Amino acid sequence: MSDPKKLFVKTYGCQMNVYDSERMAGALATRGYETTEDMAEADMILLNTCHIREKAAEKVYSELGRLKPLKAAKPDLRIGVAGCVAQAEGAEIMRRQPLVDLVVGPQAYHRLPEMDDAVQQGERALDTDFPQEDKFDHLPAARGPKASRAPTAFLTVQEGCDKFCAFCVVPYTRGAEVSRPVARLLAEAEDLVDRGVAEITLLGQNVNAFHGAGPGGDWSLSRLIRKLAEIDGLKRIRFTTSHPNNMDDDLIAAHGEIEKLMPYLHLPVQSGSDTVLKAMNRRHTADEYLRLLDRIRAARPDIALSGDFIVGFPGETEADFEATLDLVDRVRYAQAYSFKYSARPGTPAAEREEVDENVKSERLARLQEKLTAHQQDFQHSMVGRTLPVLLEKPGREDGQLVGRSPYLQAVHLLADASQIGEIVDVRIVATQRNSLSAETI
Ligand code: SAH
Ligand code: SF4
Ligand code: F3S
Predict the structure, then answer these.
(1) What digits encode the pLDDT tens for the residues 194-241?
(2) Where are the beta strands (DSSP E) in 75-114?
(3) H-helix or E-strand spanning residue 56
(4) Ligand 2: does its nearest atom lie under 6 Å from the Cβ of 235?
(5) pTM (two decimals)
(6) Distance from residue 234's CA to the centre of ligand 2 (Å)
(7) Rg (CA), the chain
(8) How far is residue 274's CA from residue 277's CA, in Å, rounded to a whole number?
(9) What is the position in ligand 1's atom list of the atom closest to the CA of 343?
């Protein structure tokens, strides 16, 4: 066989893209590609892109611009664009950037090997279909030697979204909600655990809407989690991202009953104003969301809550925004993401009149000040406590490892690299802005 070709993948956007990038590497391995961390030695560069906000999408074009000299120096270099920008703007990318050889949408990744063959024949390949077959049936899992495998892994259980929030591109770029069959998920999870994985994060754009076909009919997410918890060697289970309207009773109960299910929940609300929530098509009120959180906290009192917020949605008034601040004060999130509204072509909200950019910036700053203060309070409440930490990888300093607390906080401590993959009890001694420092006991 000829020398392996080198594949460099750059991943933007959400965790589902991280998972897909691994699977694309697995698919291209069938054509002799090995992944590399060094872009300069690559035979193929694949950008796995995100379309969620304008800035995210624009990054792709600037990155492609930066690749020009590489392509000029190495005419054989193949450049591919995957992910949600590929899905949304496939033909436009081909037109704007002649150096792109291949554009592939998220539902067509299993066709990458054939597309690469076409490129080898001197063609440009574009595939943004939503094929009938399940891409995951045809995408080999990325294999690696057991020792090199990180102790944490993602597992996509559900893709796409039928919710059509007025601001969001996901239903268009990822398509309709589809759940993967239970048997395949269990097999993939067992395989991951066999290769040393201690923690699995179940992924879906709408993960708690999961309804995969299994023995006896469709399984809910909580039923899947209960089954996964029976796998020996699997120590931690997480899932993301959930929609408030799909938090059913059993999923709430699972947080109090399943020890392996970590006490952390990312549950975006976007706004605290009922007027804005309605205009966003979120289909619940602020009060319904708060009552839901009460039930979740009743099941698991120490749960760390995380959220997403959009400020400056079309029509948002100062009073609407203050309702968001009020909701944030009531919930006291352990962690949160917040964004200025960004109009996305093709979504209903893009037709509406925008809030002034300066107003958006000012509101985002005020919101983030509050969110940061609550996050700091949460971090400080950990100091002096003993927490079980899953050791994940070497830290920046010599002899240091980084792990995660049950609440998904990064924890730094001095420990031996041979302990990676273990869960150790540590004492939290200090907190930085985004992480904790700990001592082994
Ligand atoms: N499926 C998840 C999140 C998908 S996108 C959910 O339903 O919550 C992740 C986050 O990006 C969203 O929660 C939202 O806060 C933000 N986002 C999505 N579209 C956006 C837009 N047009 N402008 C600004 N932020 C946006
Ligand atoms: Fe987008 Fe709403 Fe679907 Fe989340 S639930 S992916 S925000 S449309
Ligand atoms: Fe971005 Fe697509 Fe994920 S738009 S957030 S990469 S689903």
Answers:
(1) 999 999 999 999 999 999 999 999 999 999 999 999 999 999 999 999
(2) 78-82, 102-104
(3) helix 54-73
(4) no
(5) 0.96
(6) 30
(7) 22
(8) 5
(9) 22
